[in-house]
Amino acid sequence: MKIAIFASGNGSNFQSIAEAINDGQLASEIGFVFCDNSSAFVVERARKLNIPIIVFSPKEFCSKTAYEKEILKHLTENNIQLIVLAGYMRIVGSTLLETFKNRMINIHPSLLPQFPGRYGIKEAFEARVKETGVTIHYVDDGVDTGPIIKQEKVPINDNDTLEMVEAKIHQIEHRLYPEVLDKIISKNKEWLLDGKETSTNQCFR
Ligand code: GAR
């Protein structure tokens, strides 16, 4: 299955997916990485890994629709079947959602619906909750909403610093995202919260 990865920043999740593909753990091909920020580190990572990278910002367009239509053009030209958001810090609009409904997934560093948004790890840490986690979900028009595919909990211990919690979460993300992608790609079935497959196949077609 040919995927496109959307990222806005560091790109460590993109790299873990690319490495899983290179190691033969994930039967997929990254058609391209799309980045909305030319100074993001993910651009350098993609170039080093020889993976095509497309970079432009919504500021270059007169509307969100025009911006997303340009992205859609690249998705269509490259026969992309699944969009994988990996730190893409924008709300996806109707232009992309209509075409990629149930074919777009996201990873978020909290146990959604708790702590959505840009600062999921920090907000959980500051709220002094005893556990947070990682969520992978289908994308809808909300901020980190949409049907949950898989969650994994991460304990926050009394002595943990924010940096320690961030490190624990990223470590899980880098394992979990390729694992879940593998389930979706190889089984082509809905992968539920508790890890059980269903035959309803309603989320991913
Ligand atoms: C990841 O922790 C991801 O879960 C988060 O951005 C980070 C990107 O890291 N996504 C969100 O917060 C979405 N609301 P990366 O650029 O190193 O992959």
Summarize the structure.
The chain has 205 residues and is of the alpha/beta class. The protein is built from 6 helices and 7 strands; from the N terminus they run βαβαβαβαβαββα.
Blueprint (SSEs and pairs):
Elements: E1 2-7, H1 12-22, E2 29-35, H2 41-48, E3 53-55, H3 64-77, E4 82-85, H4 94-99, E5 104-108, H5 120-126, E6 131-138, E7 148-155, H6 162-187
Parallel strand pairs: 1-2, 1-4, 2-3, 4-5
Antiparallel strand pairs: 5-6, 6-7
Helix pairs in contact: 1-6
Bound molecules: glycinamide ribonucleotide.
Catalytic activity: N(1)-(5-phospho-beta-D-ribosyl)glycinamide + (6R)-10-formyltetrahydrofolate = N(2)-formyl-N(1)-(5-phospho-beta-D-ribosyl)glycinamide + (6S)-5,6,7,8-tetrahydrofolate + H(+)
Function: Catalyzes the transfer of a formyl group from 10-formyltetrahydrofolate to 5-phospho-ribosyl-glycinamide (GAR), producing 5-phospho-ribosyl-N-formylglycinamide (FGAR) and tetrahydrofolate.
Binding site for (6R)-10-formyltetrahydrofolate: 64, 89-92, 106
